[in-house]
């Protein structure tokens, strides 16, 4: 049940060559990557099912290897590896575009950037955006990893990394794999602890962003900073 089973004028590959990639739907472009479906499901149907399951291309970009492994029809290692490679290239391209912006002082730009980097992790990750005095990105580092419910964060290490990058400001971030982006009391206490530690070396904490699949919360916007 692959692309070759379609009439010649309906095959995405031929359509792309004749009319350009913009002429193809999201499902047709995805079908080109998948190449084959499975018994009873054509490749175009499988592509549409993937898009429906993850909420379109944007949601698919946040899918992890484990997410894809659970999709019937993507059991083969080669097919999943190819799709994961393309998704990672797309994530990196989008992240590169966001990082090239002159300043990282707009909460939405920060949330978009962090969504690409953190939302797909199946475990909790604590990361820091290190910024210069004009809020341009110097580096993003994932400093601590934990279980789904807890991550141990050491203020001294955050301060050391800020000094290493000669950062003037930082944006703190961590993900909630559960999808709940409301910060906990522990999140608020950690923010204040890091804010105090970084203030000793004259580094400002601009925000702490909690990232979940498909959505993020800025603690600065919520008045919790």
Automatic annotation (TrEMBL):
Q: Which keywords fit this entry according to its UniProt record?
A: Hydrolase, Metal-binding, Metalloprotease, Protease, Zinc
| Superkingdom of the organism of origin | Bacteria
What biological process terms from GO does the record include?
Answer: proteolysis
**Residue ranges occupied by any MPN domain in the UniProt entry:** 103-225
Source organism per entry reads: Xenophilus arseniciresistens
Q: What Pfam families does the record tag this protein with?
A: RadC, UPF0758_N
| Leader sequence residues | none
UniProt-listed Gene3D superfamilies: 5' to 3' exonuclease, C-terminal subdomain (1.10.150.20), Cytidine Deaminase, domain 2 (3.40.140.10)
Q: Which GO terms describe its molecular function?
A: metal ion binding; metallopeptidase activity
InterPro entries given in the database record: MPN (IPR037518), RadC_JAB (IPR025657), RuvA_2-like (IPR010994), UPF0758 (IPR001405), UPF0758_CS (IPR020891), UPF0758_N (IPR046778)
Family, per entry = Belongs to the UPF0758 family.
Tell me what this protein is called. DNA repair protein RadC
